[in-house]
């Protein structure tokens, strides 16, 4: 286990490295079974930057089926004139989607706006199939229901960091997932 000091603003470790690793093994096995026999060029993992980069790296290396890796980046609108939860694509995939099996890999499902937006965008491009794989979910926070095919963990309504997830671009590379102290993110 990596011996990295726990930052002051961390309340407690929610999911340690071993717990995350074990769960990812289970997810990777399920995905490998479900996509058995697929051809490399037909299966695209689409990671949502930046939060999913570590999850995607660990998950992809556990898959026993051939696959390609691609990324997208999103930005949420902060303009008051926009509808709540509106997001926009600021970087698209390189791979073309029509006829391909697409698995969206996301770090965390909160209100559900982001994932439901992505499902709309990708299903409009005519993929052979479209599924979602999400590491964390906060069910209490949901505003729109989104189908998730592969889920890592359900967590309570707290701000979490580490394992790709940030707070103001900090704490992303902590090897575990930790809850931040409320005083660190609530004014
Ligand atoms: P949603 O659109 O489902 O409300 O939000 C999903 C996005 O919000 C995630 O992709 C992530 O960027 C961000 N998010 C929601 N909750 C957390 C959290 O606890 N920690 C971090 N780092 N990001 C979060
Ligand atoms: Mg995200």
Average pLDDT taken over every residue: 94
SS-based class: alpha/beta
CATH architecture: 3-Layer(aba) Sandwich
How many β strands by DSSP? 9
Q: Ranges with pLDDT <50 over ≥5 residues?
A: none
**How large is the share of residues in beta strands?**
25-35%
| Spatial order of strands in the largest sheet | 4-3-2-5-6-7
Distance between the termini: 34 Å
The CATH class name reads: Alpha Beta
Shape designation: globular
Helix content range: 10-25%
Structure in words:
This protein has 187 residues and is an alpha/beta fold. It has a single domain (11-185), classed as Rossmann fold (3-Layer(aba) Sandwich), CATH 3.40.50.2020. The chain has helices spanning 17-34, 53-62, 113-123, 182-185; strands at residues 10-15, 43-49, 68-76, 87-91, 101-109, 129-137, 150-154, 160-161, 177-180. Helix 2 (53-62) links the parallel strand 2 (43-49) and strand 3. Helix 1 (17-34) crosses helix 2. The radius of gyration is 17 Å and the shape is globular. The structure holds guanosine-5'-monophosphate and magnesium ion. Magnesium ion binds next to loops.
């Amino acid at each position: 286990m990596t011996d990295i000091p726990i930052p002051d603003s961390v309340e407690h470790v929610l999911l340690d490295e071993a717990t995350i690793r074990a769960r990812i093994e289970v997810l990777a096995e399920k995905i490998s079974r479900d996509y058995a026999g697929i051809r490399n060029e037909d299966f695209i993992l689409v990671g949502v930057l930046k939060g999913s980069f570590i999850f995607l790296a660990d998950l992809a290396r556990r898959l026993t089926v051939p696959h390609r890796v691609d990324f997208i980046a999103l930005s949420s609108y902060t303009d008051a004139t926009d509808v709540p939860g509106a997001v926009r694509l600021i970087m698209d995939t390189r791979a073309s989607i029509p006829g391909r099996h697409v698995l969206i890999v996301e770090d965390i499902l909160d209100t559900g706006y982001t994932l439901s937006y992505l499902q709309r965008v990708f299903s409009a491009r005519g993929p052979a199939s479209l599924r979602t794989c999400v590491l964390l979910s906060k069910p209490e926070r949901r505003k729109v229901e989104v189908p998730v095919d592969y889920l890592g963990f359900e967590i309570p309504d707290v701000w979490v960091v580490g394992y790709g997830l940030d707070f103001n671009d900090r704490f992303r590379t902590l090897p575990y997932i930790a809850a931040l102290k409320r005083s660190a993110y609530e004014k």
